[in-house]
Amino acid sequence: MATETRQESAGCTENGNSRDLMDTPSRKRRVGEVTDSISTPEKKTCSSNGRVDLNKKRSDYLEWDEYFMAVAFLSAQRSKDPSSQVGACIVNSEKKIVGIGYNGMPNGCSDDKLPWSRTAENRLDTKYPYVCHAELNAILNKNSADVKGCTMYVALFPCNECAKLVIQSGIREIIFVSDKYHHTPEMTASRTLLDLAGVKYTQFVPKRQQITIAFDAINPTVTNPLASIASP
Q1: Between 20 and 30 A from 195 (CA), which of 47, 132, 171, 229?
Q2: Is 135 assigned a catalytic role?
Q3: CB atoms within 10 A of CB 41
């Protein structure tokens, strides 16, 4: 089954120009890699004269795919992995989040006593025999009876071990951002398993490179128009 690409509608515009960011091959849905600051767009619903119209609904709100992928990327910021922070978000058919996870060491296993290296002479001195992937944690963290028929949003295309978990749990679609390990044996095996099981996988192409969360946006500074009027 070929990797699909789904591109979302442009959404809001800034200064009259829509934003289209990364160039990526094949059918994709796109969401930008999360940086330290995840943000809401600064665009506003505007009238014909360019001013914010507070009497109409916003047109720059996050689309569903952007929202769920952003949740996955935000979850990734909990990861202590120094080289790769990955998050996953599981969504049911009602567009409700039923599971979230990120890559990290197993519960009860001190991440100060286990290695985080990617390479070492002894494989036991690397993170790979120990770390739990985001997909595994998201499935185990589910807040519903099961995740059958759900969609998983995840930063990286899942490895073969995670593909097994996805298949066995009944997840029917994977939306991912990066496929940078496409040619590795693990990813080749993953695609083989997903194809055989009929699990759809789609690369997401985001319309905005960053989503910024501003904690002070809920308490904006309000200018009092009467403040400059002197009291009698």
Answers
A1: 132
A2: yes
A3: 19
